[in-house]
Amino acid sequence: MKSTHNKNKHKALSVLRTPHTTRRPCYLRYVYSMRLFFLLFVSLAGFNIAMAKDYKQGQIWKYDTRSIEPDSRLVIVQVDEIDGEEIVHISVNGLRLKNPHSDTGYGEEVSHMPISPAALSESVIELVGFTDELPDYKEGYGIWREAYDSGKAGVFSITVKESVNFMEGAVNQ
Questions:
Q1: Looking at residue 140, what DSSP letter applies?
Q2: Following CA atoms 49, 165, 83, 124 in sequence, which dihedral angle do they give, to the nearest 10 degrees?
Q3: Per-residue pLDDT reduced to its tens digit, 68-79
Q4: d(Cα 110, Cα 141) in Å, to the nearest integer?
Q5: Cβ pair 131, 75 in contact under 8 A
Q6: Residue 26 pLDDT more than 70?
Q7: pTM attached to this predicted model
Q8: Which residue, among 99, 75, 76, has the nearest Cα to 168 in the 3D structure?
Q9: Do 108 and 93 touch, CB atoms closer than 8 A?
């Protein structure tokens, strides 16, 4: 009995190993194509989720803040499309920025920060409201726009938290 069992086992294995068998490669192609489709779908779905936010002037957002500023919020003050590129302009309040030029030693607001929609989408957590009373950002926007148009300024492509850290470092140099 043992020899018959081994003989059947080898026969079953030889069926799997035969090069002319088309069932195995078709099945594997199907499995691999479904995996590829699934990965592509998940990747694109994630991309769409990240990019799907429709930013509008006056929106107030919670965002991933620095640990010392848990109540900080950002306000969308303007949305531009320049040369086919969308740029979102935000004002960030509730900050505790070290600032040697301030009487208190700290700044509480960044009135104007241009940021890419992708970086903003990476930062925001929850839309918490709307306002018609925008922070005073126009002076900062005007300075930025002039520099941007002459190729001397850009747009943040890092998260809001990283941008705030960068600005704090620049003010303290």
A1: H
A2: 20
A3: 999 999 999 999
A4: 12
A5: yes
A6: no
A7: 0.70
A8: 99
A9: yes
